[in-house]
Amino acid sequence: MRTSDGTYLAVVEFGGEGTPILLLHGLMGRASTWWSLARGLTAHGRVLGLDARGHGRSQATGPWTVERMARDAAEVLEPLGPGLVVGHSMGGLHALALAATRPDLVSGLVVLDMGADLTGLPPGTMADAEVWFGAVPQPFPSRAAVVEAFGHPRRELGEYMAECVDERADGFHLLTRVRDAAEIAGEWVRRDFWAEVDGVRCPALFVEAEESVVPSGQMAEMAARTPRGRHVRPAGTGHLVHADETAFLDLVTPFLADVIADAP
């Protein structure tokens, strides 16, 4: 699809019919990381995934702001009607902003391990992340090498990142440019998003990882500040809180089904 600012964004159709269910991935990710999980959601609606700008097969064109990237998601849903939005990490922040600014498009919201206020993180955090990602040697000789590079301490992150590379003549390269990812994440430590939390009026499920990247207690507060919010913290989960797909589907599908059943 082409956005209102002319940027090409890749939209993946996972299948299903009826209520749209839009999946928004995290930083450095892509829509296809949702693949098998998305197939488990197709019984509940028409499941789609968006490659955020600068990610996957989408064009690497700024601005790299939460507002612009939430608007991108809105433009996916506009021709389809209101739907449910599930966002992980970066995608959770975009989903939150979308629900706050376009309540006509979001009937239910699921935010996975993302906070509204990361301004308390050390000033060098995002710069350090850029140095760390930049220090990982590219190209990788194989997808197994990608898993090895990123799979510590949790292998699930390595397997996730192995989906987020492109095979070229000289090996495998990360699909997202490190400098773009650093600019995107840099906004998160310069400002907070409590106004967006306070703007959410639809049913919302906030899923915090047991080993979360979010400041302690923040996701519970986010849920408490939304009129129909609920907070859960599944045991044994890391930042990729949906890595155990069976457990995640058991958790989230009753919420999605209830939202769809209550829709006018």
Automatic annotation (TrEMBL):
Keywords from the UniProt entry: Hydrolase
Q: Name one Pfam family in it.
A: Abhydrolase_1
Which terms in the Gene Ontology molecular function aspect does this entry carry? Answer: hydrolase activity
Q: Where is each AB hydrolase-1 domain found?
A: 20-245
The cross-references to Gene3D superfamilies, in alphabetical order and at most eight, read:
alpha/beta hydrolase (3.40.50.1820)
> Where does the UniProt annotation place the signal sequence?
none
Q: What PANTHER family has UniProt attached to this entry?
A: HYDROLASE ALPHA/BETA FOLD FAMILY, PEROXISOMAL MEMBRANE PROTEIN LPX1
**What name does this protein carry?**
Alpha/beta hydrolase
Q: What lineage is this protein's organism placed in?
A: Bacteria, Bacillati, Actinomycetota, Actinomycetes, Pseudonocardiales
